């Protein structure tokens, strides 16, 4: 029985290890922000569309930022979809002189339906728009957003995603965790794919779609993750999503674990739904057309399955280590003890390195994180001198207390809070496992879950 568990554990661990290594190697290409030749000559006319449901608290600040863009005013118009609103979203929007369309539907609820409804109206207008930009009501838009998007579209991309930043990274540990996740994805996922020529992924907001390709393919993305669905449709039809690293929008992150859980469960429901419809289609197309970017997109939509495989691997590891009683990590046998610890440190430091490259943390804080990562060498050494049943646990407590006190004395309170929240990022990551399971089990539930936005921040504050 022990041999069977060992073999099964090895299979799962090696599979998860190689998937992880694929993303790790790909992420390395994101460490370099390749300089691009940009064309800032205004050339296209844009319809800026905001999908809003009861967003009276935040809609005003978004519209203020959109009306101050560093792009000719005659080359863009702003449209607000007041979707099933029962507050003053429409009234406040009209005060800014933008186009406001009110939509009411009990059956077709959600952002995807609202956008499809608005696209149909834009297509019938006398004014021709070369592209349509999509935003959420809680966003703030950097003044150079359209300038950067237009430059990227001038290269020939029909769809371009901008950089989704955070407007409230310090509000709570969940907001910080979300911000770290988005900053990391922008660099390690999106920028990396731009650098190696793969397709990028739409992120739900801050992206532009050429009107012609939208008319040709149709929107049709009305599931809970309409951005992922439309990305798959584009890639399956031989198109790539471009990435504009300097086209920034600022997004409000959830403040509580409950809000975060609800939102991420909706994402996983959408992922599971899209995966069942597009994984084999994209895989087949990638083999037939010999295009790796299609297979890369197929792997991406399978994130719920990869997460479950990781969870199963952890469970089997626990069974093997605590019930069978043999070596816990099968994969670790590939490395020497020192090699395995160096590998763990390297993985741990990738995220803070990305945060440093994105100028989200200081050099001093990065040094603190580096010194903290050395615990894989220090803790076993300290524990060996503690003659107690729980020596390693005691050594861990002592190490952390000393480290946090030293950080406070040298860098101050803000750095201690950031360090604590950074370490909690691991807990945030683990919550993806039960969230993914819930999402897969409820993938057929299409009911839209609205996230309430409360942080009214001005663009000048960022």
Task: Describe this structure as you would to a colleague.
This protein has 462 residues and is α/β, with parallel strands linked by helices. It folds into two domains: 2-23 and 305-434, no CATH class; 34-301, Spore Coat Polysaccharide Biosynthesis Protein SpsA, Chain A (Alpha-Beta Complex), CATH 3.90.550.10. It has 17 helices and eight strands. An eight-stranded mixed beta sheet has the order 3-2-1-4-7-6-8-5, with helices on both faces. Helix 1 packs across helix 11 (303-324), helix 9 packs antiparallel against helix 10 and helix 12 packs antiparallel against helix 13 (363-373). The chain starts with a helix and ends in a 21-residue tail after the last helix. The model has no long low-confidence stretch (mean pLDDT 87).
